[in-house]
Amino acid sequence: xxxxxxxxxxxxxxxxxxxxxxxxxxxxxxxxxxxxxxxxxxxxxxxxxxxxxxxxxxxxxxxxxxxxxxxxxxxxxxxxxxxxxxxxxxxxxxxxxxxxxxxxxxxxxxxxxxxxxxxxxxxxxxxxxxxxxxxxxxxxxxxxxxxxxxxxxxxxxxxxxxxxxxxxxxxxxxxxxxxxxxxxxxxxxxxxxxxxxxxxxxxxxxxxxxxxxxxxxxxxxxxxxxxxxxxxxxxxxxxxxxxxxxxxxxxxxxxxxxxxxxxxxxxxxxxxxxxxxxxxxxxxxxxxxxxxxxxxxxxxxxxxxxxxxxxxxxxxxxxxxxxxxxxxxxxxxxxxxxxxxxxxxxxxxxxxxxxxxxxxxxxxxxxxxxxxxxxxxxxxxxxxxxxxxxxxxxxxxxxxxxxxxx
Length: 406
Description:
Blueprint: E1 11-17, H1 27-30, E2 59-64, E3 70-74, H2 87-100, E4 108-110, H3 113-117, E5 130-132, H4 133-141, H5 146-157, H6 160-174, H7 196-209, H8 211-214, E6 221-224, E7 227-230, H9 235-238, E8 242-250, E9 254-263, E10 266-275, H10 278-295, E11 296-302, E12 307-314, E13 320-324, E14 329-334, E15 342-348, E16 351-352, E17 360-368, E18 371-380, H11 389-404
Parallel strand pairs: 12-16
Antiparallel strand pairs: 1-15, 2-3, 2-10, 4-5, 6-7, 8-9, 9-10, 11-14, 12-13, 13-18, 15-17, 17-18
Helix pairs in contact: 2-5, 4-5, 5-6
């Protein structure tokens, strides 16, 4: 019992094998078991995984959309000009503004001379006219319109520079450590850059944060002002599993593509930067996605609401609290390796009432060997109210006494 009462500075670490075959079983089957019971690698049954393809590009990553873990990484953190891949952040901030209620799809945006004069790829909006936010968003995503991007940035933030400030703040919140934006279009600027890894992070947020808006990334055509333009993402025509996201091209950036595809329970995000042609970016991205779906699979590890531990609570109206995960936990791993994953619960040494259901109490780490593949919040699955004065005083005495013997 002494081990339960060590210093509050220390951390309680419980390692366990994942109960992959017992996801719908009773609570006891969901609880982690000691390290000695972890699954052992069986060389006869493990599938061999070849090296990922070597692409004709500057930088590329393949990301597990469920966790953000990189399955393939080649120069993924190299800072490069993102060209029109920038517009994913432009669209994200607009979608965020719509969801927060600060603007609406139906709002009519007055087109400024500045937006109308913006060069490069265009939606062909006219100065002095009004265009709905919904149509401008399609102009950004489907037609890659620089004019539409500027019009939206001015409407949301007042100016391109103010909007760029929002872009950089959002990039920091997302953990995009190798990105800096100077405009909403991706037109060249020395201080405007991103990385394949960062753009994968952004794509994952677009997919998961605003699923109601994500369908626009799969639209093959958009017509405005009687001008019908195709989506430049060739994979929307070639691969029925691909449902977004965005292309980009400038002389400095080369031809770039961020694409996401879902096959059964597996969603992957591929980012390829710096190819030499429109055809090459599509072909190389397809190779990367094919590799991912051929040699990786997504496994559900825990159901939403699974109880992973019953932890001691001090000063409460009961002595324990059930801890687990609020949402389903899935992981994309090499085929045949899922049974070798391990779980690790990280908890504070002491938990004190009151505790509210849904309150984060620690983390669940999913590991393969020494590598952490993903983390999930470990939350209380029930309320624990404060106990009586006598109970709180007694628990304080017990904690004090046991601390003397630590």
